[in-house]
Amino acid sequence: MRLPRLSDIQSAHSRIKPFIHQTPVLTSQQIDKIFDCDLFFKCENFQKVGAFKFRGATNAVMSLTSEEKRKGVVTHSSGNHAAALALAAAMNDTRAYIVMPESAPVVKKNAVAGYGAEITFCKPTLQAREETTRIIMEKTGATLVHPYDNFNVICGQGTAALELLNEEDDLEIVIAPVGGGGLLSGTSTCVKGINKDIQVIGAEPLNANDAYISFTTGKLTPSVNPLTVADGLLTSLSELTFSVIRRNVDKIFTAKEESIIACMLLVWERMKIIIEPSSATVLAIIKENPDVFRGKKIGLIISGGNVDFRKLPF
Amino acid sequence: MRLPRLSDIQSAHSRIKPFIHQTPVLTSQQIDKIFDCDLFFKCENFQKVGAFKFRGATNAVMSLTSEEKRKGVVTHSSGNHAAALALAAAMNDTRAYIVMPESAPVVKKNAVAGYGAEITFCKPTLQAREETTRIIMEKTGATLVHPYDNFNVICGQGTAALELLNEEDDLEIVIAPVGGGGLLSGTSTCVKGINKDIQVIGAEPLNANDAYISFTTGKLTPSVNPLTVADGLLTSLSELTFSVIRRNVDKIFTAKEESIIACMLLVWERMKIIIEPSSATVLAIIKENPDVFRGKKIGLIISGGNVDFRKLPF
Questions:
Q1: Which CATH class, in words, describes the domain spanning B54-150?
Q2: What's the CATH number for A54-149?
Q3: What global pTM score does this model have?
Q4: Nearest CA to A185 among A252, A133, A124, A231?
Q5: Residue A75 phi, psi dihedral angles, 5° rounding
Q6: CATH 3.40.50.1100 correct for B6-51+152-302
Q7: In whole angstroms, how far apart are CA B314 and each of A45, A106, A313, B41?
Q8: Coil, helix or strand for A273?
Q9: What Å distances lie between residue B22 and A12, B25, B54, B60, B306, CA to CA?
Q10: Rounded Cα gap, residues A43 and A305, in angstroms
């Protein structure tokens, strides 16, 4: 199993740069004061499709051979990765086949359809999703682009940290949220490749703490039916992301639901930007562990801003 | 009655520049596509205290003589102007006396108190507010800083448009919301001073359309008990702001409540930034008058981002 290196992330960045937004790094004097540290928010909520997922999806599509590109890409997802892959395919004249559970919210179906992807609905079980995906692959020859268990996707996700470190070169810590581990794998590979002395920390909801348990015990241990407001972090690590994270990440902290919600509200109120609950996890671990982070210069990967405004947790 | 000129706004900008945020000008390909025009959002929701009001308040405080500064400033307001004046005073080592109705929300009382202002509560009537203010002025000798019926406040508000035009020099139209008219007065004075060919348009809720009526009839006609979701635009023009607006503004359009709410949601969803309903009014008039704005390059003054997240209109 080949693990990504800094040079792979640098190549990915050159490849996808014309297609992605170089998102801003924002700061807040008020939030710095509250937590007594210097925070640099890398705002992937301003990325295309509203999430970092567009980086990985674009890198995966652009890394296809022309024969593969002719046949298209396929994935099963009801979240940001589906929209990201649909748009990345459309921008590269490739077909995208998206397998979604029938139960997916209408707004997400419309978003994916709006990018011109071909949607196939299935029963809302992992088995039905995988079976439906397999049938599409056989019929079309499309290449599977997994949301995180994919070398090129991980390299694309790492480009957010690359831009962050290009802009702020004296960070002491970088924190990224961890669900399936694609973002944390890319982030940690990039940061450690640039400077081993920068600490890389994963932030995970306590209610979906498979990465924390796997990291602590050294044994890959998926979550069973996790339930958290951070709905982007429900997935579990894969063999690939676990291997990368074990090698490059210094520590994983978990955050309680109430801290995640409080930090999401804090960012909305003070910074006037919309971040999704998954993104608030990176601030929530600072709130819960003040002694660890006090006085430090910290980069935070803000993963996205896709929120259902009719179902806010506060 | 001396009306402000471009040079007054330029002086104000030099004066307040070290204290304010130079807010970003943002764009959105998606929203441009929806309305078929090129929009440039001057984002005062990212200004200190979350609103353009900090510009005018700072300019008013910094324009005081040292004798006046020793005695402090006073205003009656329960909104963004109170917080802005409190912070501007604190940053300039001046006392701020704020008269607020007893019925003001706790969160607003706390914000003003947090900046170190001295709050005096009164009954929630205009008469009680003015009487209480008069008593404080007699007792302390503090200078009244009205939220908009004030030369220096208007000059400060105009500095947002000055930054916008410095950054985007080929706009065809600039739109600002209009309540009491301080922002629209400053904006129109600045824009027309720089280039008479740029159209300046005011955006007002239909449910609080005193500026529209006054502008159309040529007779100052205050609103009576207006009710709109755009709670920053409930106030009516003064003699001073009406004079400036009559001279410098080309047109005022009104917007229905449902358009304001839809445009607020649209900006949250697509741009991932938090704007208050008053700010959405500038986009709502474009939505309601597509033939007027199609194909144009338009600057929008986004007035602020202070929203009660527990009472959203959608």
A1: alpha beta
A2: 3.40.50.1100
A3: 0.95
A4: A252
A5: -155, 160
A6: yes
A7: 21, 17, 15, 22
A8: strand
A9: 34, 9, 12, 18, 18
A10: 9
pLDDT digit string, tens, across residues A221-277: 999 999 999 999 999 999 999 999 999 999 999 999 999 999 999 999 999 999 999
Angle at B23 (CA atoms; ends B9, B175), nearest 5 degrees = 65
Are A309 and B45 inside 8 Å of each other by CB?
Answer: no
pLDDT tens-place string over residues B69-125: 999 999 998 789 999 999 999 999 999 999 998 888 887 888 899 999 999 999 988
pLDDT of residue B301: 98
Backbone angles phi, psi at A119, to 5 degrees: -100, 135
Chain-chain contact of B312 with A309 (C-beta, under 8 angstroms): yes
> Letter for the amino acid at A291?
D
In terms of DSSP H, where are the helices of chain B? Answer: 6-16, 29-35, 53-62, 66-71, 80-91, 106-114, 126-140, 151-157, 159-167, 182-194, 210-217, 239-248, 257-271, 277-288, 290-293
- Structure tokens, A166: 């290009």
Residue B190 has which token pair?
A: 């600045």
Q: How far apart are CA A235 and CA A66, in angstroms?
A: 31
B 222-261 near A (Cβ less than 8 A): none
pLDDT tens figures, A122-156: 998 889 999 999 999 999 999 999 999 999 999 99
Rounded distance between C-alpha atoms, residue A221 and residue A213, angstroms: 7
Interface check A269 vs B, CB under 8 A: yes
Per domain, the residue ranges of chain A are: 6-51+152-302, 54-149
| Shortest alpha-carbon distance between residue A80 and chain B (Å) | 14
What's the token pair of residue B260? 């304001």
State the complex-level ipTM: 0.94
Contacting residues of B for A45, CB less than 8 Å apart: 272
Shared fold status for A6-51+152-302 and A54-149: yes
Inter-helix orientation angle A182-194/A6-16, to 10°: 110
Order of all β-strands in the sheet with A118-122: A118-122, A96-101, A73-76, A143-144
